Fold:
Amino acid sequence: MPGRNQQFVLDALTRSERPMGAYELLELLRQEGLRSPLQIYRALDRLIEEGLVHRIESLSAFALCVHSECTHGRAAFAICANCGRASEVHDPALERVLRRIARRQGFRTKSATVELSGLCEACAHR
Amino acid sequence: MPGRNQQFVLDALTRSERPMGAYELLELLRQEGLRSPLQIYRALDRLIEEGLVHRIESLSAFALCVHSECTHGRAAFAICANCGRASEVHDPALERVLRRIARRQGFRTKSATVELSGLCEACAHR
DNA sequence: TTGACGAACGTGATAACATAACATAACGGA
DNA sequence: TCCGTTATGTTATGTTATCACGTTCGTCAA
Ligand SMILES: [Zn+2]
Ligand SMILES: [Zn+2]
Ligand SMILES: [Zn+2]
Ligand SMILES: [Zn+2]
Structure:
């Protein structure tokens, strides 16, 4: 059901400790026979639709969802500029605040991008 | 002091109703003699450093700061998928929540990207 | 004045990210 | 089988961003 290429991409992201770019995935998956960017992007699009993968805008990269089936555009990320790891966060208080901001100006939110950039605990402590 | 090219870019963004891409700016500023992407990107980098312009990650575009001299990475945006306008929001409650999220995992935030995508009030009502 | 220096600028090439256009194969139900 | 849908493959191209290198220009001290 997932489709062959989707499974390859999903596996690669699962093995990775950090978000990966599409061309990085392509490089890795050449061994499996994937040859063109489009094959990667199509697989990513579907995985994102299914809520298994998130796109990290500030990195132009893609990360496995730590839940399974996160609805689109509801996760926040803390991204370490040093080690590259991105930790996914779900916070009801954050969602409330974002809803309030939207409501105040009559904005109908379809999806939200929340990305903190900085240093993770491990990297900050040295 | 702002530099000639920075002023051109700043003026263009001021006249624009919505965020502009770097190549869109380039196109517009050809008349002024700007010819290469780098001229645009350099000007944008400086304007961003000075807090006069924000980069909108989810659009790969750039918007004039509605305040003057917004410290880097502290603004949120509500971006209309229909008309393209991006409204800049500053919300103390949002900043508190983001600080709390960071603190919980010992994350040292350098900057935050918060972008809502959806429909603005005008566009939702028709 | 002059020359040293750094900041801003100019240009061409190239890297990195993403999609268009078109063709083919695989699958499943009428 | 026939048809429609979904997944796939390939080439070319479009869009966004940076590198490497050289030049111009203002400032300031000798
Ligand atoms: Zn998720
Ligand atoms: Zn780290
Ligand atoms: Zn601002
Ligand atoms: Zn609108």
About this structure: Chain A has five helices and five strands. The domain at 4-124 of chain A is CATH 1.10.10.10 (Arc Repressor Mutant, subunit A). The pocket of zinc ion (ligand 3) is lined by residues B 54, 65-67, 70, 75, 88 (CB under 6 Å).
